[in-house]
Design brief:
Blueprint (H helix, E strand, L loop, with lengths): L9 E11 L6 E12 L7 E5 L6 H8 L7 E6 L2 E2 L7 E4 L11 H11 L4 H14 L15 H14 L4 E5 L7 H18 L2 E6 L2 H7 L2 E5 L6 E6 L14 H16 L11
Parallel strand pairs: 3-8, 3-9, 6-7, 7-8
Antiparallel strand pairs: 1-2, 1-4, 4-5, 9-10
Helix pairs in contact: 2-3, 2-4, 3-4, 4-5, 6-7
Length: 272
Amino acid sequence: MVEETRPPVIELKDVSKTFPGGHKSERLVAVENVDISIPDEATGEFVALLGPSGCGKSTILSMVGGLLDQSSGTVKTFGKDVHGSNPDTVTVQQAYTCFPWLTVLANVEFGLQIMGKSGSEAKSIATDYLGRVGLSERLGAYPRELSGGMQQRVAIARALATKSRILLMDEPFGALDAQTRADMQQMLLNLWAQEKQTVLFVTHDITEAVLLAERVIVFSSRPAKVVQDVKIPFGRPRPPELLSDPEFVKTCQALLALLKQGPVMGQVRVSL
């Protein structure tokens, strides 16, 4: 009996995206001929998209989430073409996206209620996930009373509570200070170990990519083209001490070398 092959969780084939330029005849090419395949696995894969700032990584994320249509090629999740908002995905942005007029608890309940959860069920799920991100004592607080890191914890709890099969993260820790960023990275790793969703994580920080991901897809500067798809040679868990491991440093240096192979680099960060 031949075992049925399941389609990839995420699949981009020969995908390009162009935008109108400053003049009618001009076109800005943001993404060019990109192929990505993330297989369907029992335990979700954590994949980082690494490249210079402004190279087109966020555009790729938006196409997977259905917020943008590709100009050519195909974008699929679980074998289905993505057209419009993708119900398989949920996104955590870099910008703090809490509703300022709602409490921490109500921010997480809101999305669940839109999904059709009853008030009591939404409250139970929201309370659980806010506890997982360390905000059990701040359920009644408003976003203005929270630090940036706490607001991102709310956003992550809200995303995970939907139990979407694909978590899209667009530089979610980019605006945080170094210590808060490190704490949030470890929190995310712990949550991902529990949830095992497929994660597509955009970053221009090489160290962050190597610490978090199992695969790092390296992109050139704009237009985004795949330079190389790199398997990260570290198991789980990945404690902060890993950053000083010689093999970790070597891996970061190899990724930096790959980035330099492409066109002239924009901003890329190595925070060893």
